[in-house]
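Worked example

This section walks through a single chain of length 297. The input is the sequence exactly as stored; nothing has been trimmed or padded.
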Amino acid sequence: MDDIAQGFHIGSDFFPWGTLFASVAPGTVDAGYASTELACASAYGLATVHAEITAPRPDRPVMGLTYELAASGAAPKEIFAQLVIRLGAPTEVDREEENAGNSNAVVLHAQWSQGDTAIALSLYGSPRPSDHGDGIGALYVNWNEAAASALFIEVWRAANAALTEAAASAATAHVFHVTYEINLLLEPRCLHHPEILATPEPIAARLGATGFALWSDAAGTRWHLSTAADSIVLGDPDTSTVQVMEIAPAKGGGFAAIEVGAWSVRDAWGSRAIADAARLLENLPGLAVTRHDGYDV
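Given that input, the structure is written out below as C-alpha cells.
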C-alpha cells in the first residue's frame, strides 16, 4: 500500500488521485452523484469480491472506494494484522465482539490516515453473502475533499468573478421574499455543484435570510437567480431547466417551490413570491419551465 497516497487500484489497474469518475467507469452514470460497482478480484494484495467507486458527479474525480473483502482470501484477523504492518497503528479502533456470528454487524472497525487519504477497515461478524461471493468485511479508501477541490477551484473562482462583474451593473432585479429562511448549500460547490456560485454583495445585501432575486446583466441578455448565498447563471447546460411546484396540503402542509438543479427556494403553498417569479421565468428565452402540482401526502 505504498502508493495509496498517490492513487487507487482496481484489479491490476492503477489510477492517480484526480482521475475522473467518467474515465474510470465511462458511460455508467450520466449526471448527479456518481456510484458504480466494478469487477475487482484483488486490491493491495487482498482478495476482493468487487469495488465500488464514488464521486460527486461523473466529471469529478473518484473520491471514495469500497472494496468488499472476499471470504476466499486471508482470514479477518490476518487482514487486520497486514494493514497494521503496512500502515502502522490505527488512529482509531472499535471492537464489538458481541456481534460475532452476525453477518449484518461489524466486530471491528479501524481507521488510518496517509496524507490526503483516509483508510478504514470493517470486519463483519460472519461472512456476508452476495451474488458475486461471500464477503468478510470492507476496505474503505477516501480522498480528501480539499485536495480534490484544488483541481477545480480556480475555474470556479473565475466564474464567480464574472458574476460579480455582472452584478456591479445589473440592469434589472426582481426581489421576492418567502416565509421560510432559505437553506444554504454546504458542500464544496466547485466539486458537487460548480454551476452554483457565491452571490455578489450588491445582490446579497438586498435579500436577507428569506429573499431571492431574478436579475439580469447590464445588457439584459444573461439572467440569474440568487439567494443571499447561492446564485446561478440561467441558460447554461445545467441551468436551463426550471421546475415549479405547487403541492397542495394533504397529510402534509403543502408547499410551493422553484428548483433549478441543486438551486432552490421553497415557500408555503399558494406563495405569491413563487408564483410571480415563475411567471417571469416562463417569459425568458432559452429556459424550459415545467410546472408540477399534486398533494403533500
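What to look for: The first helix runs from residue 21 to 24.
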